[in-house]
Amino acid sequence: MLATWREGRFLTADLGVAGQRLCYNRRMSFPEALRALVGDGAAVWGFLTAIGIVLALTPLIARLAPRIGGVDVGGDRPRVHQSPVPRIGGVAIVVAILVPAVIFIQPAIFFHPEGPYLGILGGTLLVAALGLVDDIRGLRPSTKFMGVCVVALIPVVGYDVRFHHLTLPVFGDFDLGWVGYPLTILWVAVLANLINLIDGMDSLAAGIVSIAAMSFAVLAASFGRSNAAVLAAIICGATLAFLRHNYHPAKIFMGDSGALALGFLLATVAVEGVLKTAATIALVAPLLVLAVPILDTSFVVLKRLKYHRPPWDPDQNHFYHRLMRIGLSQRRTAAYLHLWALLLAAWAVMLRFVPPRPRGVWNLEHVLIAAGTGLVVIAASIWMVYSLEILKARHLRVLGLGREPTEELPAEEPEEAVERALAGPRS
Prior knowledge:
Oligomer: single chain
Number of strands: 6
């Protein structure tokens, strides 16, 4: 059903499939998508409301944390900070998302309770509660993963927030049928844990999520998915505001209560706002927008498997660990990873508005623009990967884990010894 606007408020549900195809086929421009995003004010006011709640609530949560055991003192995995820090800031983030979402996406919740957002927001609350238990009492990684899978059943099975089809370049559109259910549950659980795993240093996860959320907001608006766009804008506002307290030196961490919930939200917003469309970019865009956490976790897991360690065991092989080992400060490390994520997200957004094959017909000008931009992004990514691959014995000496070279101790140690030294305590 086409969206209608009255007295500046959004009164109906998102565009249906026909409307989404119309938005794609008419090649909505970037300025038109921005106007669609901010047209009734819901996205803007939701964004600002989330900022205000986080700024006001986070200091209160920081004072509460020591009283309930929500302080990060290290020990469960390698940390880059030296002193205890409150780690339940995710409570403020989740409240700042749920409150404006209920206010500004209320047609989908109250007037259309069969819509997806009641399931998405209810699931977010449960995942945040699961993360809060882990922040205070501690849970096994497998328990958290299975818990997110169970909660994902609410929006996926109960509210049909799932992959209906898969559109591949050149090959076309494929109906997934019942396979869409387990694939979506896996997508939600994996992405929730991806965001959780990159939340290991000041400002990194909050910055990555804010970049991804704003990208999804623009993409969802361009596909006519107005409610998804508003929710993504709210997520962006909440995480941007959290950087005020989380930027190095951080006064508070989001913890699992925030990281798991934000990953859960990004996954469901990506499905509802982008992946349900029939455009080819609908598959490519989320992978590019979330490429940094996807690559980080994939690299770390493969590294652990290579040295016969469980994939969930903590160590110091994440991208931010490796950048800091070559001498970068926390602020510069976060800035480099944020810039990398921003470049990839910008490329994804550009491919939406300058598609190489608009309406299924190759456009030479668009191909050249996409290829030229892609070369810049790929070159920057190769430089990052080259820098991140530096892992030598001198890094151990920077960490105070190795000895200076002598005649008995050569300057370069075997890679296996380095890996054993970098591995964290078994969980």
